[in-house]
Amino acid sequence: IEKIAVAWEPNKPLVIEEIEVAPPQANEIRIKMVATGVCHTDLYHLFEGMHEGGFPVVLGHEGAGIVESVVFAGKCRFCKNPKSNHCEKGWIADRQGEMSPAESRFTCKGKKLLQFVGTSTFSEYTVVNQMAVAKIDPAAPLDKVCLLGCGICTGFGAAVNVAQVEPGSTCAVFGLGAVGLAAVMGCHFAGAKKIIAVDINPEKFEMAKVFGATDFVNPKDRSKPISEVIAEMTNGGVDFSLECVGSVGVMRSALESCVKGWGVSVIVGWTDLCDFAARPIQLIAGRTWKGALFGGFKSRDGVPQMVQSYMDKKVKLDEFITHNMPLAQVNDAIELMKNGKWYIYILYVYIIEDLQTELYKDKH
């Protein structure tokens, strides 16, 4: 019997419940959670997503913990292909709308609880498929590196792995939440000489500087379309653009902000509610439009590499953190992120129970 935060239905507060967590089956791992971030994708599912069949569910999907028991499996054709970071066993393979796999090891009050994106880190314990776990340096602080379970790798990898930003290039990042700031950091890491940060909230710009942004544009302050503004700033458009909002309108603006001939635009922000569109000439003229899931990282290898980069002070994590909260305050965390009530508009909240904190200290 363990504590867990349950979303019984959409658009309602989560409820702390005591549940039964079944032991791991073939190819699964039981983990004692130490820390987890609250990501906007959790809010997307709770407040915006296609809700039919997606509840009750245990949210949370970027966490760090200690493995208690393991059963391992082989690799599928996607795992073996260097061009992809998908997996045939992943939640996105056949249940994209529900954002949860059909199987779950959680039950509460006689009902099966779905495991959000196959993880459910808003919990004291979780049981996940082995492909959702990466072994990291035991010296790494779990209450920091848990952020690498989603947002930071997603933004950083979109710039470095998917867009493949080049030294001396020009970039534009649309949206300065945690994913967008991580994309700015990735552009800077890759050696971009000009990084334009685009957001309708100017309070985010100071934090964007910390991660490497060189220029700032607030579309609300401009009378022209943002693509025209960026074209004037860059002699025709940027080499690389990254959309980190999850808005189909912003996706099109990001594409149109790229230079013709070789510009690359990457869709990073998560949404599955609307179709997106652009005029064919945008691509005929030589631009490339592509998408990124988890920044193109194969998590088993990529997450340990990112952890090491953090330990070597090559990438930032501490700067993303705005609040630390216990599991019992998960609804406060969600409201803070939903309403953006602090100046950098990021909420990565660590959900750490006293027992877990002591366990973390004992292990390190």
From TrEMBL:
<keyword id="KW-0862">Zinc</keyword>
<dbReference type="InterPro" id="IPR011032">
    <property type="entry name" value="GroES-like_sf"/>
</dbReference>
<dbReference type="InterPro" id="IPR013149">
    <property type="entry name" value="ADH-like_C"/>
</dbReference>
<dbReference type="Pfam" id="PF00107">
    <property type="entry name" value="ADH_zinc_N"/>
</dbReference>
<dbReference type="GO" id="GO:0051903">
    <property type="term" value="F:S-(hydroxymethyl)glutathione dehydrogenase [NAD(P)+] activity"/>
</dbReference>
<keyword id="KW-0479">Metal-binding</keyword>
<dbReference type="GO" id="GO:0005829">
    <property type="term" value="C:cytosol"/>
</dbReference>
<protein>
    <submittedName>
        <fullName>Alcohol dehydrogenase 1-like</fullName>
    </submittedName>
</protein>
<feature type="domain" description="Alcohol dehydrogenase-like N-terminal">
    <location>
        <begin position="26"/>
        <end position="136"/>
    </location>
</feature>
<dbReference type="InterPro" id="IPR036291">
    <property type="entry name" value="NAD(P)-bd_dom_sf"/>
</dbReference>
<dbReference type="InterPro" id="IPR013154">
    <property type="entry name" value="ADH-like_N"/>
</dbReference>
<dbReference type="GO" id="GO:0046294">
    <property type="term" value="P:formaldehyde catabolic process"/>
</dbReference>
<dbReference type="GO" id="GO:0008270">
    <property type="term" value="F:zinc ion binding"/>
</dbReference>
<feature type="domain" description="Alcohol dehydrogenase-like C-terminal">
    <location>
        <begin position="178"/>
        <end position="306"/>
    </location>
</feature>
<dbReference type="Pfam" id="PF08240">
    <property type="entry name" value="ADH_N"/>
</dbReference>
